[in-house]
Amino acid sequence: MTSTMSRDFLPTGGRIFTSVPDLLFIPEFVFGGLVWMLVASGELIEFPNPLGWVMFVSVFCFIMTTLWFFIFLCGANQSGIWPSLDAGYHFVAVVFYLSASVSLANITLLRGGIQFLNATAVGLKIYRLDIAAVVMSYLATLLYFIHAIFSAIRWKRS
Q1: Where is this chain's protein located in or outside the cell (predicted)?
Q2: Contacts of 116 (CB under 8 A, 6+ apart)
Q3: What does the alpha-carbon distance between residue 75 and residue 99 come to, in Å, rounded to a whole number?
Q4: Which residues have C-beta within 8 Å of that of residue 21, sequence separation ≥ 6?
Q5: Is residue 32 part of a domain?
Q6: d(Cα 127, Cα 37) in Å, to the nearest integer?
Q7: I need a labelling partner for 11 at 20 to 30 A (CA). Which of 69, 75, 95, 114 fits?
Q8: Is the residue at 10 inside a domain?
Q9: What is the Cα–Cα distance from 104 to 83, expressed in whole angstroms?
Q10: Is residue 9 part of a domain?
Q11: Does the structure show a pLDDT above 50 at 3?
Q12: Helix (H/G/I), strand (E/B), else coil: 86
């Protein structure tokens, strides 16, 4: 018996704005870009190595999501391997962002203790930027996780 399902599993063109996992591209851009900007606007003097990882993850995922978005938009995602690549990329992004979020939260806690001891206006501003970066990082992690789950479901159906 032959299957009546079509091989068109991934949306192309404007249809990416109407499918559930692919609709998350836009908020992933926004929150990933905000993490990048908020971390870059803080001072990187005290703890450069973990913040370097956070910057790598946010820039890497921002660029890869942009490429992924344009691949989907142009319709170059119609071969049979793309559903598994989509699920795989988003799971890697979740692992990367989760590790970066935990690292960023740890740095923010350490920096918060130092800022409360110094209690300057500039220190408090940087601390608030760090808190905002942590929140945006966890939101980006959640969005990539939801996208990964829906991509995995789509991959299993293909």
Answers
A1: Membrane
A2: none
A3: 32
A4: 86, 146, 147, 150, 151, 154
A5: yes
A6: 14
A7: 95
A8: no
A9: 31
A10: no
A11: no
A12: helix
Instruction: State pLDDT tens for residues 75-85.
Output: 877 777 888 88
Domain count, the chain: 1
Q: 8 in helix, strand or coil?
A: coil
Decide if 89 is inside a domain.
yes
Residue type, 132: A
Nearest CA to 142 out of 86, 94, 90, 102 is that of 94
Distance between CA atoms of 23 and 144, rounded to whole angstroms? Answer: 11
Dihedral, 67, 18, 24, 22 alpha carbons, nearest 10: -50
Element (H, E) at 156: helix 121-157
Look at 59-73, 76-90, 116-130 and tell me which has the smallest mean pLDDT: 116-130
Query: Which domain, by its residues, includes 121?
Result: 20-74+81-157
Terminal Cα-to-Cα distance of the chain (whole angstroms): 17
Give the whole-angstrom CA distance, residue 117 versus residue 123: 10
